[in-house]
Amino acid sequence: MTRTLTLTTALVAATALAAPALAQESEIETFEAPIVGTEGSQIGTLALRGGPNGVVGTITIEEGGLPGGWHAAHFHHVGDCSDAPEFQASQGHITSEGAMHGYLHPQGPEAGDLANFYAGTNGAAIAEVATSLLTFDGDQALFDDDGSALVVHEGRDDHVTQPIGGAGSRLACAVIERQ
Question: Out of 16, 31, 37, 117, which could bridge 127 as a Cys pair, Cβ 3.0 to 4.6 Å?
């Protein structure tokens, strides 16, 4: 009897302790999209996890996908990568009211600003990016009416120069929209 009572108490306690963790885990939404290069073919994958306070993503670029070196990545306003190789249909960076581009700018950053990442000499890269200025839904949302895009630039972002930190042309793009 004592053994049964102890086991029952342990199971109830374990369930009660696990419930908050499960509730938190259920608030996390995931999303995955192909990253296309200037020739319009897939060169990698964007995997995003969104919660109530921001978005964390993994950019994975296949071997030969990018030139070796530093690259800027930004979230852009429109989920449209159909105009390779320019990717201008994605429009500009997602902005925050009154903010300027760049983490180092006194009035920055914009909501779409992300850290630079490095591609090896073989053109492959893997990077984790994060922002607390955007969420999947809400006022500053990646999944708004026209979606958004992740755009990878040819060079690194200096996080000060307007409007794109001197990052250069667009080399890759991923559409972020719900199907």
Answer: 117
